[in-house]
Design brief:
Largest sheet: 6 strands, antiparallel
Helix content: 40-55%
Number of strands: 9
Structural class: alpha+beta
Number of helices: 10
Strand content: 15-25%
Distance between the termini: 76 Å
């Protein structure tokens, strides 16, 4: 009998953390409260086991019990608020960026439009782990037309805003691959809309290759570009892999922001 009981107890102990999260999730979905009987049915848990878990959570103020009804406690509400803060942009992008970095070893950049809407700000940067690497700093800015992430932002920009940008922009040569005519920039933006990504070879820095995909918010607006940057000798060889990774990361961050539509979305034509 003792041998039969041990695995069951071990399994129950192992599953307790998961059950705890499931309880809190169910209570979060039902702010008016849930009875022990209803919670037992919803979670498919025996009442005795569920009651023990609820009492433990109650001692830590994660659950509140009143009139035989269970609701979230103050500690759970504080935890929820902390989770929401971490889900906010751009914080929510960092775990995704780290995951992409681990799979390619290159520099991962989240570029957002600057207040002037003519530059891209590198809001988050995950440094490459490869010995030969491209280095950038969080907070640095570059012209939209010159960077892969900036071109993604431009490609999906409102048509009226894009027209005003193209009329006002002064194209400056930064590196051998910098776009230096409006006609060339328009062609590049058409390519971005058609493929969902932007490729940049020595657009800002000589010897650097980048690919970027859009990050779309809950309103269907491109809020940023997620780029992978590497030395061009390695980046060109890995072009297709980097494209797939950028799209995967861009879509995952977009979903975290609440975007539920097709990815990537078609952009307005200039």
């Amino acid at each position: 009998m003792l041998q039969n009981d041990t695995p069951a107890k071990t399994e129950e102990t192992t599953r307790s953390p998961l059950r705890t999260v499931q309880i809190l999730h169910e209570l979060a979905l039902n702010p008016a409260g849930v009875s022990l009987a209803d919670l037992s049915v919803r979670l498919e848990l025996p009442k005795t086991s569920l009651f023990r878990l609820l009492k433990t959570l109650e001692t830590g103020s994660y659950v509140s019990a009143r009139n035989a009804t269970y609701t979230l406690g103050t500690a759970a509400l504080k935890l929820g608020a902390a989770i929401v803060r971490n889900r906010q942009f751009p914080n929510c992008a960092r775990p995704v960026m780290h995951a992409i970095s681990e799979r390619c070893g290159e520099t991962i950049i989240l570029g957002t439009p600057a207040d002037n809407r003519h530059q891209v700000v590198y809001a988050e940067v995950i440094d490459a782990t490869n010995p030969l690497r491209f280095i950038s700093k969080a907070g640095s800015t570059n012209p939209l037309y010159g960077s892969a992430s900036g071109q993604v932002i431009l490609a999906y920009m409102d048509s009226n805003e894009l027209a005003a940008y193209l009329k006002a922009v002064k194209l400056v040569k930064h590196a051998p691959g910098t776009i230096d005519t409006v006609a060339e920039l328009k062609r590049r933006l058409d390519e971005v809309r058609a493929t969902g990504v932007s490729f940049s070879l020595e657009g800002l820095v000589e010897g650097v290759f980048s690919v970027a995909a859009p990050v779309i918010d809950a309103n269907g607006i491109v809020a940023a570009g997620l780029s992978i940057s590497a030395p061009s000798s390695r980046g060109l060889k890995m072009k297709h892999k980097f494209k797939a990774l950028a799209l995967e990361g861009g879509e995952e961050i977009s979903r975290l922001l609440g975007y539920a539509g097709a990815y990537p979305l078609p952009g307005p034509q200039a």
